[in-house]
Design goal:
By secondary structure, this protein is an alpha/beta fold. The protein contains 16 helices and 14 strands. Helix 1 runs antiparallel to helix 14, helix 3 packs parallel to helix 11 and helix 12 runs parallel beside helix 16.
Length: about 450
């Protein structure tokens, strides 16, 4: 059995602590009822261990906190922007940089500049906000991820890879003229936090080059993806993370980044590109939606922390500590008989709700039901990555149940210890023992766009 304890000490020590409180079962039941059985509507003070997301929830370093004090708040031409721009260019190789307040803002700007009605954007399991921005513009996201991604039991090292045959079929069907860019998400969040191999990125880039297609990256977790390459991919074992990162981005024309992930900040994002024409168009939308092009919805102090965090997030010791903690947690659940997506991803563990709750039809949202039961059992907040998140088909209006119906347990960076995660494991074991008693859900309120954030439910 896996011993749920670290074999190597974390590469940091704790300077500050924040108290957390487990409210009693009665209070949790009332809180969840008031939230409409949607944990997004819960007050954070009612949550004991918060695994809703790893976005913006990490613990910043002393260097990042110092950067908050040195940030310059000039509206235009701030040295904090220059620091961010130069750091992004050093890390990614892209010379043109636009800050935004977070990742979906970067998507909004880029998609406004590039996507038109009727376009299609092939990629590897677009995440919810990405797909929503695409469909808001009456375009379509086409999933070209390899089939292994959709079998949660297969232990494949790079389940985030793009299937070149699926990609070619999409291009042949829709035409190069209708594809503004191909999108690779690193790591593949909707597919279980699974990495993309460098070999696959090279192959997709060559495919795009031959057909004069642009290649962009959704790069929220690019450092974690590079770590997997450096530890799993033949010919790349032990290669420095910054080298791998630089090569990844050398194959594309640009990227969007939610810096709230691998740059370990509480807010921030950016667009980076080597295409000056795209950059000039994006600048206008950045001013319209975000703010001036040298701050883009961020304070100078936020840009300082972001620039520092980009480099800290590529540190091999830090990445090893983080990803191995996630793996220990996932392995402990697997060995306890909890059906999880294998292998463990970089930022989260995903529970397979189809196998956990086989008696609940996907039309009754088993992953959302499991999220609710976990909160009631333990005060732990997770999130659904399943039928609720997948939304309705824009043509038929019907639910589009995904092949993977998952509950995600996202691990914030440098926040929780193994003891916290052992507590979560014990709660899941108890739920699994009484899984037949768990009921499904139905909507009482369903928003038309990104419904999982604000929908309300009742038990079936």
């Amino acid at each position: 059995m896996t011993q749920f304890s670290s074999q190597h000490p974390e590469p940091f020590k704790i300077k500050m602590v924040e108290p957390i409180t487990l409210v009693n079962r009665t209070e949790r039941e009332k809180a969840l009822e008031n939230a409409g059985l949607n944990v997004f509507n819960l007050l954070a003070e009612k949550v004991f261990i918060d695994l809703l997301t790893d976005s913006g929830t990490g613990a910043m370093s002393e260097a990042q906190w110092a950067g908050l004090l040195s940030g310059d708040e000039s509206y235009a031409g701030s040295p904090s922007f220059l620091h961010l721009r130069d750091t992004v260019t050093e890390v990614t190789g892209f010379p043109f940089v636009l800050p935004t307040h977070q990742g979906r803002a970067a998507e909004n700007v880029l998609h406004s500049a590039m996507i038109k009605e009727g376009n299609v954007i092939p990629g590897n399991s677009h995440f919810d906000t990405t797909k929503a921005h695409i469909e808001f513009r009456k375009a379509r996201a086409i999933d070209c991820t390899i089939d292994e991604c959709f079998d949660p039991t297969i232990d494949h090292p790079f389940k985030g890879n793009v299937d070149l045959e699926k990609l070619e079929n999409a291009v042949n069907k829709h035409g190069v003229e209708n594809i503004p860019f191909v999108l690779i998400t690193v790591t593949n969040n909707s597919g279980g936090g699974q990495p993309v191999s460098l070999e696959n990125i090279r192959s997709v880039a060559e495919f795009c080059k031959e057909r004069k297609l642009k290649l962009f990256f959704d790069a929220a977790r690019f450092s974690e993806n590079a770590w997997f390459i450096s530890t799993r991919e033949p010919g790349q074992i032990g290669r420095p993370i910054p080298e791998i990162v630089h090569e990844i981005f050398s194959y594309g024309q640009g990227m969007t980044m939610s810096a709230k992930k691998d740059a370990i900040v509480n807010i921030g994002g950016f667009i980076a590109t080597n295409d000056e024409e795209i950059f000039e168009v994006c600048k206008q939308y950045n001013i319209l939606f975000e703010g001036f092009i040298t701050y883009g919805g961020l304070a100078g102090r936020d840009m300082e922390a972001l620039a520092i965090g980009l480099k800290e997030g590529m540190d091999h010791a830090y990445l090893t500590s983080r990803i191995e903690q996630v793996k220990r947690f996932g392995d402990s659940l697997h060995e306890a008989g909890i059906p999880t997506l294998r292998p463990p991803g970089g930022h989260a563990i995903y529970i397979d709700a189809k196998r956990f709750l086989p008696h609940i039809d996907q039309e009754q949202f088993p992953a959302q039901a499991l999220v609710c039961e976990l909160y009631l059992e333990s005060g732990v907040r997770a999130v659904e990555i399943g039928t609720v998140l997948a939304d309705r088909d824009p043509d038929t209006g019907k639910n589009r149940p995904p092949e993977l119906e998952l509950m995600r347990l996202a691990i914030p960076r440098r926040v929780y210890t193994d003891n916290h995660l052992a507590y979560v494991k014990d709660a899941l074991v108890r739920l699994y023992e009484r899984r037949e008693k768990i009921r499904g859900l139905k909507f009482t309120h369903e928003p038309k766009l990104l419904r999982h954030f604000s929908a309300r439910f009742e038990w079936v």
